[in-house]
Description:
Largest sheet: 4 strands, antiparallel
Order of helices and strands: EEEEHHHHHHHHHHEEEH
Shape: rod-shaped
Radius of gyration: 38 Å
Number of strands: 7
Mean pLDDT: 89
Number of helices: 11
Low-confidence stretches: none
Strand order of the largest sheet: 1-2-3-4
Oligomer: single chain
Distance between the termini: 120 Å
Helix content: 40-55%
Amino acid sequence: MSEITSATINTLPVGIHRLEPGVYLRVTKTSRYWLFKYTIHGIRREMGLGAAKGQTLGQVRLKATKAKSLLAEGIDPLEAGRQAREESRARAEAERKEQACPRVHEVLGDALEHIFFLRQFMGKLTETSWAGTFKKIDRAFGDKRVDAVHVGDVVAYLQPSWTTQPRTARDNLSRVVAFFDYCVSKGLRPDNPARWDGNLDAHLPTLRAVRRSVPEKHHAALPAEELRRIAQVLWDAGTMRSLRALFGILTVGRLAEYGHAQWSEVDLRRATLSVPMDRRKDKDPEPFVVPLSRQAMAILQRLDT
Length: 305
């Protein structure tokens, strides 16, 4: 076995040449590379230390020393190297995902537009309300990566209104769920951190339980006498706007339903107003037929003069 020196390393013949105990240079017809041979748990193993070209003998000995130190601790150098490579790949993948995954504030606009498309809201008030909620989401965790938002972040966002304003809390929950459903559908994260079952239910009481101590507040209804007085004022004013408002009171409809009514939708003989699908909130294909009272019919007769 020929001695290995810096001068002879490139001239040694085909075969195995020892540098020191356990460290060898293997020479083939096409390559020269270093090996570390060792035994662990009764098994003989070989570990590559790299090509001969581009390495000094000192660098090879340093690699071998590190491998021998691991062996002295009962650690297999080959397994340690494999684990180190896997950890390095995992770190690289995490960095890649961190760079690739957008922040919440970068996705909110597209998500809101998609939700509007799916739900086909009637009227600007609902859209304005959703946009306002999405601004709250932006303030809560807009700078976080979409895939880095956890259940704790969602709980912190919901808690301020959860036990004091059940209606607001319900809206906040449904809208943050809708946002993360969009993110899941786009492959930006694997799950929805705002889902209730097996997730939020471990951190927050149900809204049904909350309402037992915090009843939902509704708008106060006008006393009958006050409503009668207002109706008379509207009738006496006789303007298009006042009569339209009075017609809405008498039909108990939404502005979108009665405010854009057409004469073709009115059946004077049957005293009905048929609201077509495009003005119905539920988008039911069947027209919504509203019976017209004697007073509502009087308004139509007045408008037709």
